[in-house]
Amino acid sequence: MMKSLKYVAAAGALGAATALATAPAHAQLGLGVGVDTDVDVGVKTSDPHPRHRHETYVYDGYESGHWHTRHEVRRSHRWNARYEGYDCYESFQYTWEDGERVRYDTTFCYNDRGRRFEPEGVRAVVKVR
């Protein structure tokens, strides 16, 4: 009697699990009247104009995509307290940003290990027409 009670309980649990598992599928198939199942899928790129990503241009005689210095960079190990680095120098670059031609103006310095870095908050961006 004990075994048959276990079998009945197991069969009931299996039946309940089956009923619960199939209920959402049945509801979607037959009872989903008025539910809009139209799905719009799109792919978004980070650049709204991907055709400009690799296109170079020349402005005022300077090619885009490269950093250009205003003056010759000479390493004399001179400390700049404002930027907290050695031998700081100004640079600019023409490039693309959000599909627009822009010019970046910034300052680069060297750290005590001789590695070049850009101090935080020094980059300015100007649109180029």
By secondary-structure content and strand pairing, the structural class works out as: alpha+beta
**How many individual helices?**
1
- H/E series: HEEEEEEEE
Shape: elongated
Spatial separation of the terminal alpha carbons: 91 Å
Mean pLDDT: 76
Indicate the low-confidence ranges by residue numbers: 36-48
Radius of gyration: 33 Å
The fraction of residues in strands falls at 25-35%
Q: Which sheet architecture does the biggest sheet show?
A: 6 strands, antiparallel
The count of β-strands is: 8
Portion of residues in helices?
Answer: 10-25%
What do you see in this structure?
22% of the residues lie in helices and 29% in strands. The chain contains one helix and eight strands. The chain is elongated, with a radius of gyration of 33 Å. The termini are far apart. 2% of the residues are buried. The model is unreliable at 36-48 (pLDDT under 50).
List the helices and strands and how they pair.
Blueprint: H1 2-30, E1 58-59, E2 62-63, E3 68-69, E4 79-80, E5 85-97, E6 100-110, E7 116-117, E8 124-127
What would a concise description of this structure say?
With 129 residues, the protein is of the alpha+beta class.
Keyword list:
129 residues, alpha+beta, 6-stranded antiparallel beta sheet, two-stranded antiparallel sheet, 1 helix
